[in-house]
Amino acid sequence: MKRSVGSKSRESHGFWYANRFLILRRFSQFSILALFLLGPLFGLWIMRGNLSSSRILDTVPLTDPFVFTQIVLSGHVPEINAIIGVVLVVFFYMLVGGRVFCSWVCPVNMITDLAGWLRRKYSINTTSKLDSGFRRVLLVTVLLLPLVTGYVVWELVNPVSLMHRGIIFGMGYGWLMLLALFLFDLFIVRRGWCGHVCPMGAFYAQLGRKRALVIDAYQRDQCDDCADCYLVCPEPQVLNQPLKSKSDSTIVSSIDCTNCGRCIDVCEPKVFRFSRDPDTGQA
Amino acid sequence: MAIQLRKRTRRQFIYSMARAGCVAGLSGSLLASYAKQSSSLAASSLRPPGALPEPDFLGACSRCGLCVQACPYDTLKLASWLDEAPNGTPYFEARDVPCEMCDHIPCVEACPTGALDPALDDIDDARMGVAVIVDRESCLNLQGMRCDVCYRVCPLIDEAITLEMRPNPRQEHHALFEPVVNPDVCTGCGKCEHGCIPEDPAIKVLPVAQARGKIHDHFQLYYESDQAKEAESAGSGVES
Questions:
Q1: Interface contact flag, A133 B113, Cβ < 8 Å
Q2: In a domain, B16, yes or no
Q3: Rounded to an integer, what distance in angstroms lies between the CA atom of residue A40 and that of residue A176?
């Protein structure tokens, strides 16, 4: 029988170790949704709004920098609350770095992870070729559109904000788009949405260029070439440089890395760890 | 980018640039046409008080729903995919739940971006839409009955809606009381549409752009002209 991805790690280190960061990420994603849902469902207003803009305890504003950028480019000067909100969020993601939003916050991650898992489980290997740089072209397009039209165009179709908004305010026919996205990832392009299309992810990748939290292949000499990390990684191309190149740095330096930590989970010889310093690779 | 800084021939570079341009152009024009198409608001959906004019609103709204959650009457809804309003934007349908016109306007207060204009400090100045008698045949007052519901429920009774007494053309000796909307005062709260008795309302609140006409700027209305004012003052002078 075919060995499942991460089984070696699970056998050697136990279920918790082999799924630590996956479980923590799900916990993070669900907690954030729960915080937003406590208000509408139980009248406990810790968070108001949604990921596009919100307020913590009716005082601290937060604004998504991607939406904010589109608003500014459409020619609107936002009020002070949106500006304070965006400064706070940008500060946070620049501090943490990388696409932490994508793997620890974004609700669509659960859909695309499910599609990825089903692909592995049922060996669905069909994939159409789509340049992973497509998202950056799309990002530029999406940022140009408000300039030309005066509308925040991408938010009409953005499945990320649609999903989060839908869970809190009512999904309507939004599930149609999420189903389409799921099927796209399942049968058409492997890791299609998050890894190739989503301009929001491409935006957060740019925002997290300076990264305080990185994946470090610090024991790459222990690597037994089982390829589990490649199979489980949502952006497998980022692993080439620290694992397979002869460069001195063992850091995953690509801005596409989402800091999901799944490679740490599944690696039996414990090649990877999270590291706080992108230069020296100190833990 | 599709263009990475690898060693490439000039031909490959031009090719990948052209390809990226085509992809951007294709996706951009599709998105832009979808945006253009969905930028007009359905007649039944109204924006919250203080909303900027529709094109500006679609550039300013972050689709966060803070206004929706601030609304104490659950009037406001946040549109989802294929709803009456563009995806993610707040709207209400007056026939379902009209705006109760809160004094402190909590929805405007909650808006982080200013898509709902914070300059709106008196709810009576809101222009969410304009009430229009869309069907005289189904208006009970115009059938000679004393329904009066739209007039009675109007928060600006006798200002936004007045009852004008007219002879009833169907009978020789009865009057009818026609509800008349003053579009310069109507806030578009939708209480009239909500309360209207017939199965389908005879009075509806429409978005301002759909409800109102406009006379050309170069038109000079006689009663507003200097000539008319002179004649009026001259006339009153003669009388006194």
A1: no
A2: no
A3: 24
Instruction: State yes or no: pLDDT of B143 exceeds 60.
Output: yes
Instruction: Report the alpha-carbon distance of residue A184 to residue A46 in Å, rounded.
Output: 35
Query: What is the distance in angstroms between the Cα of A121 and the nearest Cα belonging to chain B?
Result: 31
Question: According to the model, what pLDDT value does residue B62 have?
Answer: 94
Say how many residues make up chain A: 283
Which helix (H) or strand (E) element contains residue A268? none
Other residues' Cβ atoms within 10 Å of the Cβ of residue B211:
19
Tell me which chain B residue has its CA closest to the CA of residue A197. B27
Question: Is B240's pLDDT higher than 60?
Answer: no
Q: Give CA–CA dist A27/B187, Å, rounded.
A: 46
- Is the pLDDT at A6 greater than 90, yes or no? no
Residues B169 and B199 occupy one common structural domain: yes
**Domains of chain A listed by start with CATH number:** 16-207 (no CATH), 214-275 (3.30.70)
Percent of chain B beyond pLDDT 90? 60
Distance from C-alpha of A23 to C-alpha of A15, rounded to nearest angstrom: 11
Instruction: Give me the residue label for tokens 């085509």.
Output: B22
- Pair B98, B163 in one domain: no
Measured at the CA of A244, the angle between CA A124 and CA A216, to 5 degrees, comes to: 95
The rounded distance, in Å, linking the Cα atoms of B88 and B232 is 54
Residue ranges with strand state E in chain A: 47-50, 53-56, 60-63, 214-216, 273-275
If you count residue pairs, one on A and one on B, with CB atoms under 8 Å apart, how many are there? 173
The candidate with the shortest Cα–Cα distance to B86, out of A63, A142, A153, A147, is A153
Asked if A172 and B58 come within 8 Å (Cβ–Cβ), the reply is no
CA distances from A151 to A177, A204, B47, B59 (A): 21, 21, 16, 4
pTM: 0.88
B81 and B113 both lie in a single domain? yes
Q: Which two tokens stand for residue B153?
A: 């429920």
Please check whether residues B150 and B102 belong to one and the same domain. no
Quote the tokens at residue A105. Answer: 């916050």
pLDDT for res A25: 95
How much is the pLDDT for B146? Answer: 92
Contact yes or no for B62 and A67 at CB 8 A: yes
Please write the tens of the pLDDT for every residue from A68-90: 999 999 999 999 999 999 999 99
Q: Which residue type, as a one-letter code, is found at position A171?
A: M
Residues 6+ apart with CB under 8 A from A170: B77, B78, B80
Residues on chain A touching B27 (C-beta within 8 angstroms) = 137-138, 141
Q: What is the pLDDT of residue B3?
A: 43
Put simply, the answer to whether B24 touches A161 (Cβ < 8 Å) is: no
Instruction: Indicate whether this complex's ipTM tops 0.95.
Output: no
